Amino acid sequence: EVQLVESGGGVVRPGESLRLSCAVSGFTFEDYGMRWVRQAPGKGLEWVSGINWNGLSRGYADSVKGRFIISRDNAKNSLHLQMNSLRGEDTAFYYCARGWNYDSSGPLDSWGQGTLVTVSS
Amino acid sequence: EIVLTQSPATLSLSPGERATLSCRASQIISSNYLAWYQQRPGQTPRLLIYGASSRATGIPDRFSGSGSGADFTLTISRLEPEDFAVYYCQQYGTSWDTFGPGTKVDVK
């Protein structure tokens, strides 16, 4: 069974940093591209970042470019999102999601349950 | 960046009725790389359709996708109680993905 479990969310002040992690199991991690997608409470989905199977292709939404860094450790079956210079508008549930193939773009066929990040003074 | 617009924002229908949801892109989506997701209250999104018209594994055939270029449609032929949810379209025809704002299908 495919499982994706996010961790690392919490309450931080504007300007602070947070590192999210996603532990995966039930599939061969290095065969798939991965994404972070966020959803502010009561709002729609926003694609945040994507990474291909070997980490050499990465992309970011304009809203987080220069502040967030996506990475992966295929040996440890884990995905990460380093979030720096956090802002109030970054407050959201952050979902880890599996792409349908090795690429950094494409449909997302499995999702974690999400971790909540709250940025507030 | 390709911007997706979904309409209507809310669709109020009764069980058994047909639902037609629209997703329009600000430019042509290459290779019809357009997906649809369903998000029920309190749940994570579920992939319904990819490649504009291909159903994902385990998706009932009352869900169908159509369209090409910049204009796409999700049709639910007969609404079941569990189909009342929010539906999002996603384009993956560029280097990075974008989602539409969603259409909520609620009970009339």
Protein architecture, described:
The complex is a heterodimer of chains A (121) and B (108). Chain A is mainly β. Chain A is built from no helices and 11 strands. In chain A, strands 2, 4, 5, 6, 9, 10 and 11 form a 7-stranded mixed β-sheet that branches. Chain A has a 4-stranded antiparallel β-sheet with strand order 1-3-8-7, with no helix packed on it. By secondary structure, chain B is mainly β. Helix content of chain B is 0%, strand content 49%. In chain B, strands 2, 4, 5, 6, 9, 10 and 11 form a 7-stranded mixed β-sheet that branches. In chain B, strands 1-3-8-7 form a 4-stranded antiparallel β-sheet, with no helix packed on it. Chain B is globular. The mean pLDDT of chain B is 96. Classes of the chains: A mainly beta (121), B mainly beta (108). The interface between A and B is medium-sized, with 23 and 25 residues.
